[in-house]
C-alpha cells in the first residue's frame, strides 16, 4: 500500500468528519465552510483517481462559484447565531436517523455482496488509466466524448443555463410597488 | 486496509448521501436545506465517478459534468427564491412558508 492510497483514505475520513460537523452546525457559515471542505476533499479524490478535468471543474464551479453564492446569501440575510434547530432526542430526529442509517446499511451490504461481480458481469470499457495516458490525457479524452457522442446534450445544457440565468434575475429583482 | 479504494469510494458516497438526507429532512434553516441538497449531489457525483473509474468508462464523467452544470443553475435559482422568501417572511425558517402564500 503506497502513500497515495493513505492520502485517499485520509481525504475520505476528513469528508466524513466534516459532514458530521455540517449536520450539527449552529451557524450557517459553519455549515457552508464544512461543505466547502467536503468539496475540496472530493476534488482531491478525483485528482488522485487521475480524473483531472472533473477535479478542476469541481474546484472552479463548486468550491468557487456555488460556495461564493452561498456565502454571499448568508451575508445578505444577516443570520444570527441560534440554538440547534432540532432536538437530538426527539422522535422526529431519531426516526429519520434510523431510516437513513438503515438505507446506508442496505446500500453497503448490497455493495459488499455485488461489487466484485461488476468485474465480469459488465463489459470493461476501453479507457483504462494507461489507455487514457496514451490517448493524450483525461481532458482530451473527455473533450472528444463531449463534442462527438454528447454533442446534443451539451447544446441542451447551455439552454438550461440560459433559463436559469433569466429566472434568477427575475426572481432576485425587487418588486415595483 | 480491509477494503479496496474503489469500494471505499462507494461506501463514502453512500455515507455522504445519508448525511445530506438527514440535513435536508431535519434542519429548519432554508440555507442549510439547500446545502444538504448540494451535499447529496456531490455524493451522487462521487459514486458515478467511482464506478466510471472502476469500469474504465468515460460516460460517468460526462454525466458528472452535466450534473455539476445543473447543480450550479439549481443553486442560483434556489438562492434567489430563498432571498425572496426571507424578504417576505423576515425569517429563514422553513416553517414560515408552510402555507405557501406571500
How would you describe this protein?
Chain A is mostly helical. Chain A folds into 2 domains: 3-124, NADH-ubiquinone/plastoquinone oxidoreductase chain 6, subunit NuoJ (Four Helix Bundle (Hemerythrin (Met), subunit A), Up-down Bundle); 125-177. In chain A, 75% of the residues lie in helices and 0% in strands. Chain A has 8 helices and no strands. The N and C termini of chain A lie far apart (66 Å). Chain B is mainly alpha-helical and 102 residues long. Chain B has a domain at 28-91: Helix Hairpins, CATH 1.10.287.3510. Chain B has 3 helices and no strands. In chain B, helix 1 (5-26) runs antiparallel to helix 2 (30-54) and helix 2 runs antiparallel to helix 3. In chain B, 52% of the residues are buried. The chains are: A mainly alpha (177), B mainly alpha (102). Chains A and B meet through helix 1, helix 2, helix 3, helix 4 and helix 7 of A and helix 1, helix 2 and helix 3 of B.
Number of helices of chain A: 8
Quaternary state of this entry equals: heterodimer
Count of extended strands of chain A: 0
CATH topology of the domain at 28-91 in chain B: Helix Hairpins
Order of helices and strands of chain A: HHHHHHHH
What does the main sheet of chain A amount to?
A: none
* Content of β-strand of chain B: under 5%
CATH class of the largest domain in chain A: Mainly Alpha
- Look at the structure and give the CATH class of the domain at 28-91 in chain B: Mainly Alpha
Write the element-wise H/E pattern of chain B from the N-terminal end onward. Answer: HHH
Determine the most extensive contact between two protein chains: A-B, 80 and 66 residues
Radius of gyration of chain A, Cα only, in angstroms? 21 Å
The residue-averaged pLDDT of chain A reads 87
CATH superfamily of the largest domain in chain A: NADH-ubiquinone/plastoquinone oxidoreductase chain 6, subunit NuoJ
Shape of chain B: elongated
Radius of gyration of chain B: 17 Å
Uncertain segments of chain B of ≥5 residues (pLDDT<50)?
A: none
Please estimate the helix content of chain B: over 70%
Terminal CA distance of chain A reads 66 Å
- Please tell me the CATH architecture of the domain at 28-91 in chain B by its name: Orthogonal Bundle
